[in-house]
Structures are given as C-alpha cells and as structure tokens.
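Need a sequence for this fold. Nothing fancy.
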C-alpha cells in the first residue's frame, strides 16, 4: 500500500525539493498540494503527480484560476478551512513548508490529519511551539523538524536524555558577506545579499542568512524544540557548511552530524527514504571534507543582529512574534529597495528595544488568536512609525 503524503507550500523551495524526491519514489501518493499565489506552478505540479486536490490561500488568485483547475479535473479549494473535507483519513506524512507566521494556522489544522508532520516553518515553531506541542500530544502525531540544523540535533539526541546536554552548537555558513567588515556592506543591494555561497533558498531566508537573522531564529527554535536554556546554545561560523550541529554532553561525549548542503538529505531521512546503494565516490568525497573543517565565533561588529541573542527572554512570550513581524516587514522593504542593508538591521535593533514593545516580553500568548492580534498590532505600529536610518 502506498504511503499518503500532503505538501503544504509545495511551490516553495522545500516543497519543490520534496517533489523532486517523490519523482523517483513510487511508494508514495500525494493527497494534497498547496500554495499562496503561485497557481501556474501548482497546476503543473498537480498534473505531473496526478494530484486531485489543491489549495490556494490567496482569494483573488483562487477565483482567477478556479475554472482552469476545473478544466483539468483538479479540485481547487480556498484556504485551509477545507482540510477536513479533503483529507478523510489520516495520511502518513505532511510536509509543512509554508513561510511566515501564516504557517501556524495550517500547522494546527493538519496535525489531527497526519501521523507524522515534518516542519520547515521556523516562524510557526518560534511563535507557537507551546500550542503546537499540546496538539501533537492530543492527537499522537509524530513531529520531525526538517531544517538541516534542527533535524541534525534531533537525530543526535533523540535517543538520549535531554538533561545530559551541556551545549548545542548551531553552525552558520557566514552568508555572502562573511569576512567583510560591516562598514563595507552598508549599502549592499539585495541581489548581492541573495547570493548565498552554499544553499539555494528563497529570497526571504537568503536575506536572513546574510544578516545572521536566520541563525537567530534557529537559536530560538532549538531552544523551544529541545527545551534548552539560552546559555546551552552557541552559534559558530562553519563556512564549509558540512557539519550542521554539534552536541556536547555532560558525560564528556561529543556528537556531530554532517552532510552535504542538500535539503534532500534531511527530508529523505525524515521520510525513511534511503539510498539502496552508496558508491565509493560518495564515501571518499565526504571523507575529504573532514580534512578541512573550521569553526569560528561570529563577531557582533560584522553581524550587528547578534545583539538580539542578549534580548531573548528565557520563557515564551510575545517577543518572538514581535521579532518575526518586524523582521518580515523590514526584509520586504529591503527587497523592494525602500531601505538599505544598514537600515534593515539598525531599524530592527532599535525597534526591539522600544518600551512600546518591551512591555510585552514578559507576557505569553495563550493561543493562535493572541499571536495573530500581536502580529496586527506590531504591523500597525510599523506603518505609522517606521523611519529610515541612513
């Protein structure tokens, strides 16, 4: 019997990577695909993989393409409120790669409908892990992170006592500007910040990688997923991007997990898809990588946003929602050439320290509606008060 799978955010980089894996796997049947606005790519995917049910989140795009999907005998739905209509029985896997806080609602809705949920959506975990965790337990749904760093940590410690963990090292490539002083990259245009040296990613995450914001998100995500304190986590720059996590244990053991910069690897492993044959070339190539491993501490003078690590509260609060909302807004403005590279980072640091927001850093959202309200509240403030720093 074929394993049934759902891919939320199928037109993004993680979704496309997953489909490229399934293209060669005949033991899986795709029950559902989704996108926000990329209807043409969604239609192409549905036709290629013979998927009968798809979701488009954007209302205008939904109505614009409704007849086109109908002509191709594909059931098109608007929004995730229809999930229960589409998924009659629990599927084996759901890949959730929807970007932004918008991914939290479908995450919560899909948990009862899948036995395993594989999440690459940082924002959902950062803002709502305490809510997600309750629902996972209620429906006995297995959770696997598929970001390379968190998948690596999960693999390293899943059979160990979490209390034995002394330090978790998250590795960062350093991005496209590693080795350059911040003064020399004040006015770097978006197209240069998008030129990641190791990973092929979407625009938003590529910008976050260049500023080290992505690694700060991963710091918070690791803290929540593995019940760690701030001082149990450290970030090191590893330009080769071969080692993805290092764990120091209190019993003096050290473990690390390494693989090439290919998101297919954590996704395949999470879905129990393994190569039946490993060639000598693969082994020898990876062995060579071990001869040139290096790790360096990132400097705040080159990555100003690392100062955010000192602001992260130990306990879950509205801080995470405010942080993500401000960063999303500023990255969007930077990509549109409305602010420069320096403005993106200094605006973020200054806004996070404003008493208008800091008073919420000791308050905890109780549910998704609290998170949505805070997102709207933060966006409203930014629309009225955002200034450009030159």
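Here you go.
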């Amino acid at each position: 019997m074929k394993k049934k799978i759902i891919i939320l955010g199928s037109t993004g980089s993680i979704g496309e990577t997953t489909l490229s894996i399934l293209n060669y796997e005949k033991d899986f049947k795709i029950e559902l695909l989704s996108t926000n606005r990329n209807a043409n790519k969604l239609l192409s995917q549905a036709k290629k993989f013979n998927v009968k049910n798809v979701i488009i989140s954007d209302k205008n795009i939904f109505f614009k393409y409704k007849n086109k999907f109908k002509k191709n005998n594909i059931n098109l739905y608007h929004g995730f409120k229809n999930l229960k209509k589409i998924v009659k029985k629990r599927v084996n896997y759901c890949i959730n790669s929807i970007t932004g806080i918008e991914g939290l609602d479908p995450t919560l809705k899909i948990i009862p409908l899948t036995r395993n949920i594989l999440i690459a959506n940082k924002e959902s975990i950062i803002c709502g892990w305490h809510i997600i965790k309750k629902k996972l337990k209620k429906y006995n749904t297995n959770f696997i992170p598929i970001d390379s760093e968190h998948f690596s940590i999960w693999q390293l410690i899943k059979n160990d006592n979490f209390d034995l963990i002394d330090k978790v090292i998250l590795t960062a490539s350093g991005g496209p500007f590693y080795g350059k002083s911040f003064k020399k990259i004040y006015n770097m245009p978006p197209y240069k910040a998008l030129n990641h040296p190791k990973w092929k990613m979407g625009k938003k995450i590529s910008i976050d990688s260049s500023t080290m914001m992505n690694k700060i998100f991963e710091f918070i995500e690791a803290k929540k997923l593995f019940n760690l304190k701030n001082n149990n986590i450290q970030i090191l720059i590893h330009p080769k991007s071969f080692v993805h996590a290092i764990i120091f244990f209190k019993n003096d053991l050290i473990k690390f997990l390494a693989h090439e910069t290919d998101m297919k690897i954590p996704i395949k492993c999470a879905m129990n898809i393994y190569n039946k044959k490993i060639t000598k070339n693969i082994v020898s190539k990876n062995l060579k990588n071990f001869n040139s491993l290096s790790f360096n501490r990132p400097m705040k003078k080159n990555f100003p946003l690392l100062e955010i690590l000192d602001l992260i509260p130990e306990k879950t609060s509205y801080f995470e929602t405010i942080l993500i909302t401000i960063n999303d807004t500023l990255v969007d403005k930077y990509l549109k050439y409305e602010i420069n590279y320096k403005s993106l980072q200094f605006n973020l640091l200054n806004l996070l320290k404003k008493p208008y927001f800091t008073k919420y850093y000791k308050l905890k959202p109780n549910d998704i509606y609290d998170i949505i309200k805070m997102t709207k509240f933060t966006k409203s403030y930014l629309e009225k008060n955002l200034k450009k720093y030159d």
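For context: Residues 7 and 226 are 25 Å apart (CA to CA).
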